[in-house]
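Case study.
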Amino acid sequence: MSGENLDPRIARELEHARRLEWWTLGWMGTVVLAMGLAMGSSQAMKTAWIEDMLSLIPAIVFLIALRFERKSPDRRFPYGYDRVNNLAFIISAVALTLLGAFLLFESAMTLIKQEHVTIPPVTLFGQTFWLGWLMIAALAYSVIPPMILGRKKLPIAEALDDEVLHTDAMMQKADWMTGLAGIAGVIGVGLGYWWADAAAAGLISFSILNDGIRALRTASAELVDAAPRQLGGNELAEDAEALRRVLEQRYPEAEIRLRETGRYIHAQVYGVSPAGAVDLDEIWPCGADRAWRFAQLSFVPPQADRRNASAP
Amino acid sequence: MTLSRMLGALVLAGAVGCAELPKDAEGTLDRVRAEGLFRVGIVAPGADPGQRHQQHQMIRGVVAATAARAAISMGPSERLLVQLEQGEIDLVLGALAPDSPWSKRVTLLPPLEQPAEGDAARAPVLHAAARNGENAWIKILYREAQAVAEPQS
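After joint prediction, the assembly is written out as follows.
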């Protein structure tokens, strides 16, 4: 895939990411099916099943955002569609946070109500056996795809500076951790510890909630044109900070403002008029292979900005 | 130790002790075997002669499987099910609708008689019920309930 609005330097990685997300949808679809069939009346399995369905959201919004990102600007969307990536990021962050909160709530309620989980026997193909074994098999299967896919997505998310893909990788981590917690829970219930299920789910819900809230903070910051943040964190991005320093040296009398539009950095030089030609690749301080990230440099002369004319 | 390692260790520890799964949360089966007695509540009135036969078959099956004798009491379903939920009795036999609110508060085993078809499918059917979470005990009751239901199907 090489859309006309995509930088050719990232087109290959994006294509790789797109293929991985389709794999995610297909593979996780089979997990949802297997878990649905083995679910029985176990609350933990139901939670893991809902979690698996929620985990498809980042992959779906990534694919939708990518379709838009390829489109060229038009009269109705003159700035193009780069920001669809921000929108996708906030949707993914909300999904991850909701997942953590849901998991925490469910497990807390089970513990408070002291619900004793029944995992009955089941008869399949004429054989009667404990449903717990089937659940463990389904959960073990549910651990494998997200473990592989999540690990593959992380380096691509870093190469593309893609928060949606990064959140998706976090979601897959949440997935396989919930799967392991589910296995621990089913075995715990099998051993007679009714609280094992909920305690295991509650334990990992903190980690998921933490990832979700961190992503939500970064996504909200991007939405209000904050300075670019590090991938998966709320600290200022190192490459953007290096760019800001270069621009400050170049235009010492100006105020430098950076923001992130999707994966791209836009820089505005406030308080000076453009002087001569500029070469973005030459200004970019972090290597040619990532120069695509610096997408736009604009100048705002003092008289052209009514709101900030009196700003320090 | 990271969270994932802790979870992995927990799974491994569980797998090691897995030979005898499942066990009961409140130890019903161990108690029944130790005391040689299990407490049955039969919902009364209501059982027709056919249902009475199935109830007796069910109790006989459990007696044979656990080498324990049955202490039988009779009463209205509401009272018996509350007692079951609180662990005061171990097994309730009576006609219960599969979509009754009780189906979440206690565990219904497979029906002891053939459920009706069509509109009558939601009608109460003779069931054995056990306390939630007593998974080893439920495993034995499940097998016996299947054995009672099988000759009819």
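Observations recorded in class. The longest helix of chain A spans residues 8-38. Chain A has nine helices and five strands. We will return to this complex in the next lecture.
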